[in-house]
Design goal:
The longest helix is centred in the N-terminal third of the chain and has 39 residues. Helix 8 links the parallel strand 4 and strand 5. The chain starts with a helix and ends in a 6-residue tail after the last helix. Helix 1 packs across helix 9 and helix 3 packs across helix 12. The chain contains 13 helices and ten strands. The strands form two sheets. The chain has an eight-stranded parallel β-barrel, surrounded by five helices. The chain has a two-stranded antiparallel sheet with strand order 7-8. It is an alpha/beta fold.
Amino acid sequence: MRRHKTIRSTLKTGLLAVVSIVVAYVIITAIATVIYWHRHGSEPYKPGVSFSIKYAKELGVDWQQNYLALLNDMHVKRFRLMSYWDEGEPQPGVYKFDDLDWQIREAEKSGAKVSLAIGLRQPRYPECHEPDWATKLSADEQKEALKSYIAVTVDRYKSSPAIVSWQLENEALNTAFGLCHDFSRQRLIEEYNLVKQHDRSHPTIVSVSNEFGLPLIGPIPDIVGFSIYHRVYQSWGKFYFDYPLPPIWHGTRAALIELFEHKPVMIHELQTEPWGPASTAQLTIEEQNKSMDAKRLIDHVRYAQQTSIREYYLWGGEWWYWRKVKFNDDSLWNAASQVFADDRRSF
């Protein structure tokens, strides 16, 4: 009898402890979220666009005209650009930055700002963009070659008035997508320290790997990046899936990061293009519209704004242009243009 009482007492104590922890977490989270919304609610929105030369070429559009249209017609003032390793160093020690130089110069002329992606893993499939020659190196040799390329890239562009930040290794620890084989956190830490050795003037962004991640383990970056996708195609079940997460989910994540780690948060990738059963270029217009159209584009921007995270980069500027010039459909281009008509605008 005494033993049963002891067990019940222990279970009761344990349950009370768990309940207390949950209640405390809910209270802290609620307070942090309210403070975050109050602190940032009056700040202007800062929309931007990711732009990939590779993707523009895949869609078959003139990438320079695409970029200039975003810059001069849509009046985008914030860009997330890429420094793909396979294009920037096609042979060991032989650097080819002509295209990226051109993009940076055009941004400078228009007063636009650039957050430059650096490292092995950068936006767009196959995610990891190592040159062929690097794949023949040992793991240690490839790591050192990559670090050398990162250093060269940072040194080349850190003095540009257009550069405002570095985006190091796009979702580096995301094992669910892309043709990548190295998910070493230690490599990520070493690369982060390397960037800081070469440039302490600009913040370095590291993005968490999914809709749920928090930067609990190093490196703790200057800015934390979130990706937000809302409607995606599930290939295993052959159906479209809408993430059921409300905006407050991401706002609360941002609030906790700001509260405990004192780091700002931005949305480095906001879905405003299709996610279908094949690459976008292979989808019919009807299939593309199942996961993204002009109305959904605005809805996704509205969703991002409701998180209270003020800076967000739209994903799909090459696709909007492709639909406009190849299919005479400017609905997406016009919808996106509304976003950049006034950075303070709320939809």
